[in-house]
Design brief:
With 316 residues, this protein is mainly beta. The protein contains 2 helices and 22 strands. A 5-stranded mixed sheet has the order 6-10-11-12-13, with no helix packed on it. Strands 1-2-3-4 form a 4-stranded antiparallel sheet, with no helix packed on it. A hairpin with a 4-residue loop joins strand 21 and strand 22. The radius of gyration is 35 Å and the shape is elongated.
Length: 316
């Protein structure tokens, strides 16, 4: 009998222990399935390889992907001259999503009907959406963002230029550098346009200009300062054109834009050596004859401009 009571007590004790270990149903916290981020499928590019009617020269078809815009210079039967030759002077703008023509404009004859307009190289253009068009002596610029063809621009120069022949002044090269157009006119030299305000573009004259032709006014080296996006720093360039190689070089003088005083006294603008003061980094010298910078020795870094120029005359 005692054995029976022990077994019964053990049975009830086990039941109570199991019930004590279980949580009441209404106190359980339901476990939610883990959240899974569902990403929408990547949008498919709607840009098409639009078929353009008419003849297009190499380089005269420029795609501005960010604006879904295709800019072309085209020649067709509507502008052929009396001899039946193509005249590459029709500006056509297409929406690359639909290949719909959104703008067409016939540019004036470029000296002669068979002298083509050419779209400029876009070398460094992360922020602006400008497509520049090189004529014989004029520049057109299409503002893709505002769908506007700007008025023609003619290069300006700091010093008087002397034309060598009928070809002098023709634009040999043009390229887009962010908000600037940089180019070179035959026998005349480098030029720059500031396109920061696309509705009011303006020539950017050089801060200094060195006559390489001993006063004959036939060859100049020019120094320009291009303001960076933040407005506090500048890049210095001394462009050059190699006629033997038929090659243009911007010649950027700094690896990165510098915070410096760009004011150059009028009486030294035609000097071979231009001394610049860079904030917190001493001085910087440009050799205008060779269009390059000069690394000064440490002992000359904090010298006066006069002392630096005297040292350069003896050592360069």
């Amino acid at each position: 009998m005692l054995k029976f009571f022990k077994k019964t007590a053990l049975f009830f004790f086990t039941i109570l222990a199991l019930n004590a270990c279980e949580e009441p149903a209404n106190n359980k916290t339901p476990t939610s399935p883990p959240e899974v981020e569902v990403k929408p499928p990547a949008p498919q590019s709607l840009q098409k390889d639009c078929e353009i009617k008419g003849a297009i020269l190499k380089g005269n078809r420029k795609l501005v992907k960010e604006r879904n815009t295709l800019v072309c210079i085209v020649a067709d039967d509507s502008v052929k001259d009396k001899r039946g030759k193509n005249s590459h002077r029709i500006l056509e703008i297409y929406n690359t999503n639909t290949c719909k023509l959104i703008k067409r404009e016939v540019l004036p004859e470029n000296i002669s009907s068979d002298f083509p307009y050419q779209i400029a190289d876009i070398i460094y253009n992360n922020n602006s959406h400008l497509v520049a068009i090189k004529g014989y002596g004029e520049i057109y610029c299409y503002d893709v963002e505002h769908h506007t063809l700007l008025q023609p621009m003619i290069p300006s120069f700091l010093s008087e230029r002397i034309a060598a022949d009928a070809q002098s002044g023709s634009i040999k090269h043009l390229e887009v550098w962010e908000n600037y157009l940089i180019g070179y006119a035959e026998d005349i030299g480098a030029f720059v346009f500031d396109m920061t305000d696309t509705q009011h573009p303006k020539p950017l004259l050089p801060a200094a200009e060195y006559d390489l032709s001993d006063g004959e006014g036939e060859d100049f080296a020019s120094l320009f300062f291009l303001k960076s996006e933040n407005g506090n720093t500048f890049q210095a360039i001394a462009p050059d054109y190699d006629y033997d190689e038929n090659k243009f070089q911007v010649n950027a003088l700094f690896e990165t834009p510098k915070n410096m005083n760009i004011s150059i006294p009028k009486n030294v603008k035609n000097n071979r050596f231009i001394v610049l003061n860079i904030k917190d980094k001493g001085t910087f010298v440009v050799d205008m004859e060779n269009r390059k910078n000069i690394n000064l020795p440490k002992k000359m870094k904090n010298k006066t401009t006069k002392e630096i120029l005297n040292w350069l005359k003896k050592n360069q």
